[in-house]
Amino acid sequence: MNALALNEIVADYGTQRVLGPLSITLARGERVALVGRSGTGKSTLLGVMHQHWHRQGVALMPQELGLVPSLSVFHNVFMGRLARQPTWYNLASLVRPFRHDVAAIRPLLERLGIDDKCWTATGELSGGQRQRVAAARALYQQGDLLLADEPVSALDGPLSEVVMTALTQAYPTAVLAMHDVELALRFTERVIGIADGAIVIDAPSRTLRAQDLLVLY
Amino acid sequence: MWHSATVRTSLGFVVLAVACAFLADFRITAHDPWGELGRLFLGLIQPDFTAVDYLGEAILRTLAFAFVGVSLGALVGMGLALVFHHRTVRTACAFVRAIHELFWALIFLQFFGLHPLTGVLAIAIPYAGVFAKVYAEILEESDPEPSRVIPHGTGVVSALAYTRISLAWPHLVSYTSYRLECGLRSSAVLGFVGMPTLGFYLESSFSQGHYATVGALLLLFYVMIATLGLWVRPRLLPLYLIAAPFLLGSGLPIRWQNVSRFFTEDIVPAPLRQGEGLTGLMTWLGELFATEALPGIWNTLLLTQVALVVTGILALALYPLISRHFKGRVSGALGHTVLVILRSTPEYLLAFILLQLWGPSMLPAVVALAIHNGGIIGHLIGRRSNEIALRQDAPRGLERYAFELTPRLYGPFLAFLFYRWEIIMRETAILGILGIATLGFYVDSAIQEIRFDRALVLIVITALLNIGVDILARWLRSRLRLRHTATSEP
């Protein structure tokens, strides 16, 4: 399978249409930024994509991050590969992590600057730290496609660069909902602008400047 | 104030209880009740700890049965909680938990005899039903988001362990440790029907008039429950769980022919056994209803309604003991100790003691039920009152109690009280074993006469009555819009 396609999809919230009908085709190896005002349907679109494609090795980074606050940073990152090991191995890791898993996860945490928090429960971390844990989980998962909703919204300049670089290196195919237009243009090949649940811009990133996207806001 | 549905409902309950109190049998028949009570207090003040083996065995067995029973119940309950959305599982759990531990013990005693399995199952089975329901509610309330990010293809068990169970873990642990405390009480009470736990030793010390030993047993029991948080540590728990099954004692061996006879003969209604057919069965049931079930139900209901209202009054009177808004009146530590003692004494044990002292009537039962349940609810709303912030110039003393705190606490108070309604009824029925004419009395008599068919029908009737009250309480809670979640349970 080469291309990922959504055909004439819609999403309703109660009786109100919040998205579509719209169609999108993603090529493998193509990174797409979803931009637009908040509440225009970016998160909904990501949710629909996840629904359609979750069997195809998708790593999901929702806006709420989906962390388990009572588990340590290590375990939250480890969850990215739960599907690869047998159940007994996962349960044993919950009680006592295996050394080579720790050795595999440590460098990821180091790269994102949270290795000192390896054994801290994620419920005790700050917003920015939690966001990096969710990013580390996606990196560790090594899926075929990344769906991320505002992956760096809680991080400041240099850190958001680090996380974006790591995520885009690990995932040549990705859909990233972002509100930082500059960052979106730099780290993606294609920009899809959404307004009122419909696609209003769909163009290669190199042909666009930040000002061109201002119409969306 | 008289227009509020909450107040009118409460008044209705009070009026009903007063009417019931006129119909019920309250008297003191013992010839020297206060002298006996005095000797018991003397025993508590001058306890005799010299019989170390005797006391040690009582405590050890009580702990062992509680640990094995509760852990088995928790394990099975967790399994059931995961499939709790099936109607059959929900119904079976409701039925299983509507039957009191002592009834389960009486049933198992008939075919396992005095084997440890009897005590273990008597705790594990009803507890599994409770755990299943509460665990399911706790898991239900956990955040669904992490389950979405789990990679596709993850096994069901791994996904559960890493998301829902991990998310709910703190709540699961705190609820389970609360139930362990209940399990210790249940285990102690199982001694009254012959298990080698605290109740057994208490009963024999009482019958010999050794009040100093009774005092020592009671004090050890309170210390054991009060210090639970100190010695039940996550790191030590595996050790306890491994050791407990070996400390249950040997009891008597199981005779398997008794087991098969129980199911194929004993519990088959007599007319069917004797080939009298359906008409015989109907007459048998009709007779059982008229002579035992109806009087039993009547007395159970009378006693429950009186006990419920007295419990409520006591709880409202007791909560200031641990409320920070009334400090200075009673020193905090003393208030806490009083409430801990009240709520950690099982109703059955209290009723047993009071019956010894005052003679048989409904009075000891009402007092025992009110003290235990009033202590629990008083503790819960007292703790709730500490979350309330009063304005700086709030009135003091009785005005503070009547105008500031009680009106704000009345909703949660009623929610807790309705929640315990079913528990009070379950206990009321069981107190019949001590000689008060509630349903348990007729169950126990039927068992004494080796008429297990009748006993079983009466137990099922008791269970249905409990389920009925539970449904009524839930309806009242939703009508009065009283919020109730799994974690608001004591």
UniProtKB/TrEMBL annotation, chain A:
<dbReference type="InterPro" id="IPR015854">
    <property type="entry name" value="ABC_transpr_LolD-like"/>
</dbReference>
<keyword id="KW-0067">ATP-binding</keyword>
<protein>
    <submittedName>
        <fullName>Phosphonate transport system ATP-binding protein</fullName>
    </submittedName>
</protein>
<dbReference type="GO" id="GO:0022857">
    <property type="term" value="F:transmembrane transporter activity"/>
</dbReference>
<dbReference type="InterPro" id="IPR027417">
    <property type="entry name" value="P-loop_NTPase"/>
</dbReference>
<keyword id="KW-0547">Nucleotide-binding</keyword>
<dbReference type="InterPro" id="IPR003439">
    <property type="entry name" value="ABC_transporter-like_ATP-bd"/>
</dbReference>
<dbReference type="GO" id="GO:0005524">
    <property type="term" value="F:ATP binding"/>
</dbReference>
<dbReference type="Pfam" id="PF00005">
    <property type="entry name" value="ABC_tran"/>
</dbReference>
<dbReference type="GO" id="GO:0016887">
    <property type="term" value="F:ATP hydrolysis activity"/>
</dbReference>
<dbReference type="GO" id="GO:0005886">
    <property type="term" value="C:plasma membrane"/>
</dbReference>
<dbReference type="InterPro" id="IPR003593">
    <property type="entry name" value="AAA+_ATPase"/>
</dbReference>
<feature type="domain" description="ABC transporter">
    <location>
        <begin position="4"/>
        <end position="213"/>
    </location>
</feature>
From TrEMBL, chain B:
<keyword id="KW-0813">Transport</keyword>
<feature type="transmembrane region" description="Helical">
    <location>
        <begin position="103"/>
        <end position="129"/>
    </location>
</feature>
<dbReference type="GO" id="GO:0005886">
    <property type="term" value="C:plasma membrane"/>
</dbReference>
<keyword id="KW-1003">Cell membrane</keyword>
<protein>
    <submittedName>
        <fullName>Phosphonate transport system permease protein</fullName>
    </submittedName>
</protein>
<keyword id="KW-0812">Transmembrane</keyword>
<keyword id="KW-1133">Transmembrane helix</keyword>
<feature type="transmembrane region" description="Helical">
    <location>
        <begin position="214"/>
        <end position="232"/>
    </location>
</feature>
<feature type="transmembrane region" description="Helical">
    <location>
        <begin position="423"/>
        <end position="443"/>
    </location>
</feature>
<dbReference type="InterPro" id="IPR035906">
    <property type="entry name" value="MetI-like_sf"/>
</dbReference>
<keyword id="KW-0472">Membrane</keyword>
<feature type="transmembrane region" description="Helical">
    <location>
        <begin position="455"/>
        <end position="473"/>
    </location>
</feature>
<feature type="transmembrane region" description="Helical">
    <location>
        <begin position="239"/>
        <end position="256"/>
    </location>
</feature>
<feature type="transmembrane region" description="Helical">
    <location>
        <begin position="58"/>
        <end position="83"/>
    </location>
</feature>
<feature type="transmembrane region" description="Helical">
    <location>
        <begin position="297"/>
        <end position="321"/>
    </location>
</feature>
